[in-house]
Amino acid sequence: MGKGVYEKGVFSLYVSFDYDATKYLEEWKNGFNLASRSLFEATSGKMKFGTIMAANRGRSFTPKVDPKKEADVVIYGPKYTGSRLSCLASSCYNVSPTWPYQNPCLGWAYRYFTLLHEDRWLVWYILHEFSHYALGLYDEYKNQLGYPGGTCCNDNDSSKCIMEVCDSIVTQYCDQEHTQDNQQEFMNHKSCWATIQEKYSDLAGPSALSDYNITWVMG
Ligand SMILES: [Zn+2]
Ligand SMILES: [Zn+2]
């Protein structure tokens, strides 16, 4: 479907490798663990990745689940020349207007985000694309129509956000100093942190998460 689930701050995800990633699985495990740490830090310890169920070479998950239908994440190999994509309410709707409008896309069949082979090192991309898919956030480097040109990268360091692309070491979601002229503002009408709190109202309580570590399971 994402067949992935959210429960009490923990996102468990299904990851399908489109290539033979045998030699890189340990690096990918580390990458997802670091992305989980960034999510944990950006949400003051209230969100993390939980079980990452991975299937190599497009094989089915265990118990048997169709990766094309059920994966939350599809990872392409080094020969792939396309770019990263993330299913979001508007982009899903563009693909198939008959699908119900749903934001976030987590938990909906045939909806997923994609990553590239190098993203096992560029873990910021894991969190950025996940944030579209599971948190319902839009890009802040794009304008209202979805093209490059939205306001972002405010000079004030404290305003930088994971949904901008200016600085890959940013590990926070914008809050008060949210920049206005961009797709996130146009679609969600508020900052990224306010959007997350709206979609996951259980965040209001104290954090129950003690660590950011993931559980990596090969399907
Ligand atoms: Zn993006
Ligand atoms: Zn933001």
Characterization of the model:
It is a single chain. With 219 residues, the chain is an alpha/beta fold. The protein has 2 domains: 1-136, Rossmann fold; 139-206, no CATH class. It contains 6 helices and 6 strands. It has helices at 25-42, 67-70, 89-95, 123-135, 183-188, 192-199, and strands at 5-7, 10-17, 48-55, 73-75, 113-115, 215-218. Strands 1, 2, 3, 4, 5 and 6 form a 6-stranded mixed β-sheet that branches. Helix 1 packs across helix 4. It is globular and about 45 Å long. The protein starts with a strand and ends with a strand. The mean pLDDT is 84.
* Sheet of most strands: 6 strands, mixed
Taking the alpha carbons of the first and last residues, their distance comes to 16 Å
SSE sequence, one letter per element: EEHEHEHEHHHE
**At the first level of CATH, what is the class of the largest domain?**
Alpha Beta
Tell me the number of structural domains.
Answer: 2
Instruction: Please compute the radius of gyration using only Cα atoms.
Output: 16 Å
Do you know the CATH topology of the largest domain? Rossmann fold
What's the CATH architecture name of the largest domain? 3-Layer(aba) Sandwich
Give me the count of strands. Answer: 6
Low-confidence stretches: none
Bound compounds, each kind once, are: zinc ion
Total of DSSP H or I helical runs spanning 4+ residues? 6
Mean pLDDT: 84
